[in-house]
Amino acid sequence: MSAGRDEVRELDQTFGALADPTRRRVLELLGKAPQRASELAALTQASRPGMSRHLRVLKDAGLIIERGDDDDARAKVFELDPASWSQAKAWLQRVEDFWSEQLHSFKQLAESHAQQTKGRDVRSASRRRE
Amino acid sequence: MNDRVRITMRVEVVQALAFSVFTEQLDGWWRRGKRYRLSDDSVMTLSPGVGGKLTESFVHRGKARVFEIGVVRVWDPPRQLLIEWRPVNFKERDPSTEVEVSFERAIGHSGEHTLVTLEHRGWSRIRTDHPVRHGQSDSEFLASLGRWWGDLAATLRNRAEPRVPNSE
Fold it and tell me: Which of A25, B29, B51, B107 lies at a CB distance of 3.0 to 4.6 Å from A106, suitable for a disulfide?
């Protein structure tokens, strides 16, 4: 389950962003519905400036996006970035590739045993015929 | 999107042989290289029976090292095997993922063969409150990353499919 160097670096940034419990809580909350920064600060009991910093880290890591609030032109709403969804999918694809390669290797070994067994059967059958 | 991967493969051997090669000759088919093992010259072992360990052993700087990767939870030869999969840097209390392998007997034109299905599931069970680790190898890093992504995947799934509660 290996990844390219750039990919690891990119994932490393994500990993760092996820290392903080407040930021993980923010992602959980945004998983339910988009929220304003002020609501997120209240729900996580973080200070407003602290929440701004957390949101910036999550945005830089590509985990969330910011858009205007339909109800209030001055406010911003944060939501999960759909692209991070595709990265999660990519992870599962990597797991699938890992097992697919392993099973091919298993198939080769198992079938080589069957060939040997068949070979032995043919040889012993021909010996019996002799 | 769900939190599992599932692969089925047709193997041209009888069910009992498929099961025994899979379990007894694990080291023979488990691929070598960084992508698959912590060390290229390691030995992979699966001890039979419930509670049996899936381990990778090798010598590092003159010291023998044994890493436990999984524990057998279901041992039903020649039909089924369930391994609790706990990559190297998982702690005891961390929830782990599961690898289930089933061996299904099938008869075709060419005679008896076996359908081997492997399912690796449970990525979304993993909690996120796990300390970040430093100095990990690629494989360790990615092993732990799987848990993080798994949780994120679950969060996103809940959002993406609000009317389909846990469709899997």
Answer: B29
Q: Per residue in B70-90, pLDDT tens?
A: 899 999 999 999 999 865 544
pTM higher than the cut 0.80: no
Question: For all residues of chain A together, what is the average pLDDT?
Answer: 78
Chain B CB contacts of A109 below 8 Å: 21, 25, 28-29
Closest partner residue to B149 (CB to CB) among A8, A19, A91 is A91
Q: Which of B148, B163, B166 to mutate to test the interface with A (most CBs of A within 10 A)?
A: B148
- B116: how many CB neighbours lie within 10 A of its CB? 23
Number of H helices, E strands in chain A: 5, 3
B82: closest CA among B10, B15, B23, B145?
B23
CB A58 within 8 A of CB A9: no
DSSP state, residue B136: -
Residue B103: in which H helix or E strand, if any? Answer: strand B97-108
Residue B78: cis peptide before it, omega within 30 degrees of 0: yes
Strand partners, B44: B56
Q: How far apart are CA B86 and CA B81, in angstroms?
A: 16
List the one residue out of B151, B3, B168, B143 whose CA is nearest residue B70. B143
Greater model confidence, A32 or B17 = B17
Mutation site for B-interface testing, chosen from A6, A80, A91 by largest number of B Cβ within 10 Å: A91
Q: Mean per-residue pLDDT for B130-159? A: 41
Reported as a pLDDT band with limits 50, 70 and 90, residue B165 is very low
Cβ–Cβ under 8 Å, residues B29 and B130: no
State the ipTM, two decimals: 0.72
